[in-house]
Amino acid sequence: MASGTRGVAAATISLAVLLLVFCFSPSTAAAAAVPSIDATWTRHLPLPRGLLRGPESVAFDAKGQGPYSGVSDGRVLKWNGDTLGWSTYTYNPDYSSEACTASLLRPETATEGHCGRPLGLRFHLKSGYLYIADAYKGLMRVAPGGGEATVLVTEVDGVPLRFTNGVDIDQVTGEVYFTDSSRNYNRSQHEMVTRTGDSTGRLLRYDPRTGKAVVLQADVTYPNGLAISADRTHLIISSTGPCKLLRYWIKGSKAGTMELFADLPGYPDNVRPDKKGRYWVALHREKAELPFGVDSHLLALRIDADGKIIEEMRGPKGVRPTEVVERKGGRLFMGSVELHYVSVVTRK
Ligand SMILES: *[C@@H]1O[C@H](CO)[C@@H](O)[C@H](O)[C@H]1NC(C)=O
């Protein structure tokens, strides 16, 4: 027992060291003191009983209902308030509860390739369509009211999507921006994408008017979540392995080019606008995180339109958020690919 525990600890430390090596660069941003939100104690929106977990992305529809979140058995669930809890909203064409409900003998790691794994979610507010970046199924969409989703894109330029990850929408034109994190590794191998420095990810755009998808930028290092800027001139994209945010210009003199937007003190996942031209970026883990010491780490950062960190959220190391969305009244909804609930943090 004791030696087993030490083995695990040693493995964790070597992983931490490995992450240090692959993600080390001086970060001026980390040093600056900014206002901090304490997310040690949060309200939970617990997933239905069983082995279900991992509400990765948290989305709200045009009426402000939700959150909606994709979970480990391949479904997207909708939160209907404390009394009713979660209900099934949508699922991919291959989903069935018989084949996809996890059990002790059949963990989700054995079924997710077939059952799907919804990651990024985003509503097109005008049409009510929900777009889903499913790690294994590709880009999908479901009409208002939910039900079975339609698979829209499974390959672009003849190259199959292997690890569809983040999604955002130009709410005016309806164009959908999304990422494929790697040509070489699928979601279950996400640690390899970081470890090998894999730079075969792609930034893609789907046009709902033509039904076609195009590559905007190839050879990106672990592109993950993304968000379109408030003025719709550019995209902010997480590059997870190198702990950076990138900026891709859609319009203007730099259109079609990509540049560094910010160096981060941790591994970014989804990026969400805060409706004031700034962004919340969820961090999976800090760059230099050790598995001992004070049980507190960075959960998320608020970044302004110039790439500067202006606020942070901290909480227990066991919480590794994948998305943070700010709603009215200073409420922040936090998704995680590992936990059994969505957290609601209230800003004091
Ligand atoms: C991910 O890719 C590996 C290597 O090709 C494969 O062995 C594995 O089955 C894939 N995982 C899933 C869940 O599809």
From TrEMBL:
Gene Ontology CC entries for this record: vacuole
Protein's cellular compartments: Vacuole
Keyword Glycoprotein annotated: yes
UniProt xrefs under SUPFAM superfamilies: Calcium-dependent phosphotriesterase (SSF63829)
Keyword set, alphabetical order: Glycoprotein, Signal, Vacuole
Signal peptide: 1-31
UniProt cross-references to InterPro entries, sorted A to Z: 6-blade_b-propeller_TolB-like, Strictosidine_synth_cons-reg
Residue ranges annotated for the Strictosidine synthase conserved region domain, each copy included: 165-252
Pfam families in alphabetical order: Str_synth
Domain of life: Eukaryota
Molecular function terms from GO: hydrolase activity
PANTHER family for the chain: STRICTOSIDINE SYNTHASE CONSERVED REGION DOMAIN-CONTAINING PROTEIN, STRICTOSIDINE SYNTHASE-RELATED
Family the UniProt entry places it in: Belongs to the strictosidine synthase family.
Protein name, per record: Strictosidine synthase conserved region domain-containing protein
Organism annotation: Triticum aestivum
